[in-house]
Amino acid sequence: MRFVLLGEQATGKSSLLVALYGALVNRRAGDVRIVRTVDDVEFLSRGLLAFGRQESLRRTEVDSDASLIVELARGDQVVSLDIPDRSGELLKHMLDARVWDPDLLAQIRSAAGAMLFLRADLLAPGKAGPKADFDSVLSTEPAGPTEPAEPDESAETAESETAELGWHPGLMPADARAVDLLQSLLDQRSRPLPLAIIVSAWDRVSPSPSPTAWLSEHVTLLDQYLASNADRLPHAVFGVSAQGGDFATGLPSQLIGEDPWDRAYLVDSDGVRDTLLSPIVWLLDAAM
Amino acid sequence: MNAVDQLLFGYRDGHQLIAASRSLSPRQQRDVLPHLDASFDHADAQQLVGIGVPSLDGYLLARIWPAPELPRPGAVWAHALLLSTDQLVRIRLGGLLGLLRRPLNDQFECYSSALPLPEGIEHTAPPLLTRALNWALQSAGDSPVIVLWDSPDEAETALVSMLDASPAADRMVLSFRTRERARPSSPYRIQVAAAVAGPLGDARDLVFDPRHPPQASRKPSAS
Fold first, then answer.
1. A42 located within any domain
2. Nearest 5 degrees, angle CA A72-CA A14-CA A111?
3. Which residues in chain A are contacts of B27 at CB distance < 8 A?
4. Is the pLDDT score of B219 beyond 60?
5. Using CB atoms, which residue from A40, A60, A148 is nearest to B25?
6. In this complex, which of B13, B17, B39 lies closest to A61 when CB atoms are compared?
7. What is the pLDDT of residues A109-145, one digit of tens each?
8. How far apart are CA B205 and CA B186, in angstroms?
9. Which structural domain range is residue A77 located in?
10. For the whole model, what pTM was predicted?
């Protein structure tokens, strides 16, 4: 069973995979246990070592072919799980170019579920989009060596108009980009796609509402879109801190000395602490 | 004809185009991005990439370096020369390696205009590696090739020499990449690396190891 990770750069995809792997091999996964790892897990082991040293993970390069491929047991049920770890830049450039990456498209069409990653501290009030850049569109041409997207047959007029305005998809705020992605995704699937919304860097959310309430307040457009398409995108929202805190500013004193799999935590849609495997368990249930 | 376009990619809210002597559409940027990004085990390593990019109607020759001075772990710099079809066919390519420069101190202006083509600069590749590359290409058929070699500098010189020596009609489709550890099933015709990353599994790659002539070749998928 394949679950696809969807998120732009630095939204916590690799960090969650590493934390998941750490929870599985160190038996912090509730009633889910790992039966065997199927593929090379060097990047996961290296990630756990980095977390142990209180270092953030290296970014995932665009042509990475890494995956978390494991067999999991949950009660009497054994499930093979394949979660490819794709670069966030791949998705970013795909949205900017408005053309599907062929590999990601194939994965989306066959996936049993997906996780959509949003980073809490980048969607705080005033940070939800490149407002300054967007304002500049009103008076100036865009900076840098970027040309407007090559015209698609179906969008030639729109491309031309946006080029005249100096607008490009990179100026869309994060919630609009997420909705744009999901709309494109639904165009490619006839079947519903169970979707776990992962709000990463949850340790930076203060005061801490439930993830559902946070989504409604901070990513309103996405929240409304999900509500309107709940039949095709059944979803649940989770808050995740894969590191347990911010390594740059220092971990909370009570976490210093803890192992990475004990520092990482997750809160479910209602804000209640649960195991890091909760989104996987939710996706498995939704997909079956 | 006397100047070659250049691109600089680096990390700025994601790995992206930082400076260039020509404009690229988002789709063209997406097409070159996988060839201008890398993961490194060592901070002093580098990779060389050569590949034809149909959407640019040109050939990309690029070098990639780690960028540990940038705040995001794993960030890299990539400086690429974009050769037109005409340039790829007509000019001597050996001197191009000297044009590839890692940016220093956020100075990007020098990447915004086309570079004059160098003249008369040649490098000598190790004969053993040169022979191994030629033999690997001729004997591998359509299979991708991994050649094991310890010196990245020698690998770079040998690969560009190989491109120079190839028939003009074949150059656009002759792709290569140096890595610290070669990856099975990569999109490049040839990889040169000191080791192979992970098991080959069902990969079609043929591995040649000219460092140890008695065991000069093996076919992993058939063993």
1. yes
2. 55
3. 97, 99, 149-150
4. no
5. A148
6. B39
7. 999 999 999 999 888 665 555 544 555 555 544 445 5
8. 9
9. 3-129+172-287
10. 0.85
Which site among B18, B37, B64 would you substitute to test the A interface, given the most A Cβ atoms closer than 10 Å to its Cβ? B37
Q: Which value does ipTM take for this structure?
A: 0.82
Give me the CATH number covering residue A40.
Answer: 3.40.50.300
Contact A65 B183 (CB under 8 A): yes
Number of domains observed in the structure of chain A:
1
Nearest CA distance, A40 vs chain B (angstrom): 7
**Average pLDDT, integer, range A199-225:** 94
Q: Do A149 and B73 touch (CB under 8 A)?
A: no
Place of tokens 């690396």: B193
Nearest chain A Cα distance for residue B89, angstroms: 27
Mutate to test the interface with B, among A53, A57, A62, A86 (most CBs of B within 10 A): A62
Helix (H/G/I), strand (E/B), else coil: A3: strand
Query: Could you report the per-residue pLDDT of A135-194, keeping only the tens digit for each?
Result: 555 554 444 555 554 544 444 445 555 555 677 777 888 899 999 999 999 999 999 999
Phi, psi values for residue B73, rounded to 5°:
-55, 135
Q: Which residues of B touch A55 (CB under 8 A)?
A: 73
Strand partners, A241: A265
Integer-rounded Cα radius of gyration of chain B: 17
Is the CB of residue A50 less than 8 Å from the CB of residue A75? no
Please check the confidence at residue A285 and state whether its pLDDT lies above 70: yes
pLDDT above 60 for B131:
yes
User: Closest Cα of chain A to B35: distance in Å?
Assistant: 8
Residue with tokens 């590493």: A18
Return the closest-CA partner of residue B156 out of B81, B98, B84, B205: B98
Q: Does residue B198 sit at the A interface (CB-CB below 8 Å)?
A: yes
